[in-house]
Structure formats: structure tokens, C-alpha cells
Amino acid sequence: MTIAFVHNNKAFLPGLEAYSRFFSRYNITCEVVDKNELGLIHRHVEWWIMGVDLSKPKEGIYKIHEYSSSSVPPWRRWKNWWKSFFSAQPDFRLFLNEYVKKVINLHDHIPFGYRDIGVPEEWLQADPFLHEREYDFVYTGDISPVRQPQQLLNCFSTGSLKDKTLLLISKDYEELQATYRDYKNIVFMGPLPYSSMDTYILKARFGINYVPDKEPFNQQTAARFLEYAALGLPIVTTRYAWVERFQQQYGGHFFYLEPNLSNFTWEQVNNHSYSKPDVENFTWERQIRRSGVLEFLTSKFPELEF
Fold it and tell me: Do you know which SUPFAM superfamilies this protein is assigned to (predicted)?
């Protein structure tokens, strides 16, 4: 059996590697392709990371649409409407969470489930104190202009942390890298294979979760936050709805940044008391198993056993 995962290669998608690791244990082949390559492979399931899917149904091939996030500004509401109105109908849908399902705003009877972000199970066993620290801070993930990363980077270029180091693990950062090329304490790296991300995250003393307090960012799971938490890294974060709900439910103590970053100083970060939240249930294995997608697959392929 073959599952073709279809995406446009724009977003960070650690879930793709997690899916491949999971399904390969059951002798299921996973191919990651863009829409132009899809017709070149034999597949039983098309698993679209949405985007828009304008393809026509094909007999004998089941289709899954996964909405791992809402569209981002500008015109995010229009883009969400475009996705929902023009996309082909799948056989099953996955949403990151209830917020994403609400804003995509689909009204039909197609079965669905929720698949939140996860972390590799082995990361939960990491001891950050056994690793040599090469950087003071690390930030992983998207640093596109819509997230306004300059406010954060200015702290390390000319602000209170100009004598501290920041490792940025991202992609498509060439313009930003050129802007800060004179500041050797700001190190750009990546994109990196997901399998090696933990090695580099653990080179830092603190993990930064810098998220704008506006929709959709403040309502969606922050993959970097979970990654830092799983690896036991002390977390410095902006304050917004999702992270506050997470703390209420799973505990932990984090350093909350003021909106203008006025408290982002080495002294205040170091003097804060940190503790690790409970992320035992956030492994990729558990997220996949409770999403409902395995039940859908076994209903179409009774020979499968997960």
C-alpha cells in the first residue's frame, strides 16, 4: 500500500516525517510529492496538506485533506474561503484543532478528526544538562515578515542582548540574514532534517517562542514550544491565548515577554524560575492514534491493523 503526501513545500511540516516513521512500521510506503509529481506514482491514498486541492477524484484512490493551520495575513479570511469553496471533496479531513476547523468553515458531512502537533517520543528522555551549550538562545521555525521577527532580532543586534548569541533554525531567511549580516552573534542555519533538530536545539541555553498575539498565530499550537518543552529547555515566550491555555492544562513555568520586549534582558531571563510542562501525551504516536485517521484507513482497507 502507498500513501502519497502532497504539499507545496512552503511550510515547516515535521508531521510528514512522523507519518512516514509511523506507517513504515506497517509496511506502508510513504511518498512525499508536490501536486505536479502526484500523477507519476501509483498510490492508494492521496493525503493533501492543504492548500487548495483542485484535482479530480480518481477511482480506487481515497483522498484525505489535512488542515495543519489557518491561512495567514494578508487576506487570510478570503484565502480560507478559497480553500473551502474550490477544493475537491475528500473522503476524510484532519484539522489541527477546533479553531482551524471553525475558520476553514466547511459545511458538509464528510468525516473528520483532529491531529495536533507532536514530538518524537525519544526527545522526552533528553537531558539538556548533558549537552555543551554553544548558544545562549535558539529559535526554530517560521521567520517570515508576517511574524515581525525584526523586533526580536533587534534585541540581539543593538538591544539589551547584543552580547548574547541567537541561533535561528529556519528557511527562506536570506533577506533577513542580509539585514543582520554585521551581527555575528545572530546565526542563521537550515533548513535542517527534522531528525537532527534536537541536536541543535540542545546547543542552546534557552528556547524562544516568539509568536504574534493575533489570529491565527495565537490560536494554533506552536511546534517550537512543544519541541523545547520535550527536550527540557527553559522557555522564553510571548504571552498569547494558546500558550496560556496550555500552561493552565499542562503546567510548567516560562518566562513571559512583555509586548515591547522591555523585560527581555539576560539578568531577568536568568533569574526566572522555570519548570517543564507535562508533554508525555504529545508524542507523534499518540497524536496520530487519537486523530481518527487510522479508523478511516482500516474502514477502507480492512487488511490493515494498527
Answer: UDP-Glycosyltransferase/glycogen phosphorylase
